[in-house]
Amino acid sequence: RLHATDITSSSFRLMWPELLSQETGYYTLEYAPTADLAGKRTKQVSGAHTSLVLSDLAPETTYEVALIPESNVHYFPPQTTRVTTLAEEISPVQVLISESGPRSFHVSWAPVLDSVVSYQILYGPLPGNSVKVLEVDGGHNSTVVEHLAPNTTYLVTVTALYRSGKEKSLSAKACTQEGE
């Protein structure tokens, strides 16, 4: 049976039993969003394959998938399945401020997602409009913000920059300790 694994917001892996071999034919794979079957895409795969990753898909979308074995030996009926991609990652969902001192604090966030290229940490005193930016690689989930004023409230915004070009932000307030 044709089925999907490794489902994300923009891709999934299709797996199917070995029906053909390299010599006996190939597979035609057709897939389209259920809501837009006219937007059908087609891929051809050698008969030696039993899996394929489909990518560049829309998030939170149900796809109709048909695997058509094109055999020169036997007739195989097409196999079909429906796969729904996951919602676009909403991130960060948590921003934590810790290890607060007079001139620095530690910012961490969760979750860390493969689809994030980098994080931008914007911070500035409240009230006020002087904002500084730190860039953090997408594989990291924390950073230290330094050179701050003592006994001051800061607004900290963590923005996730996705490979898709989308951005999602979450803010938290942080207070530095009184200086010596």
TrEMBL record:
InterPro entries: ECM_Regulatory_Proteins (IPR050991), FN3_dom (IPR003961), FN3_sf (IPR036116), Ig-like_fold (IPR013783). SUPFAM superfamilies: Fibronectin type III. Keywords: Glycoprotein, Repeat, Secreted, Signal. Pfam families: fn3. One of its GO terms (cellular component) is extracellular region. The keyword Secreted applies. The keyword Repeat applies. This is VWA1 protein. It comes from Ptilonorhynchus violaceus (Satin bowerbird). The lineage of its organism: Eukaryota, Metazoa, Chordata, Craniata, Vertebrata.
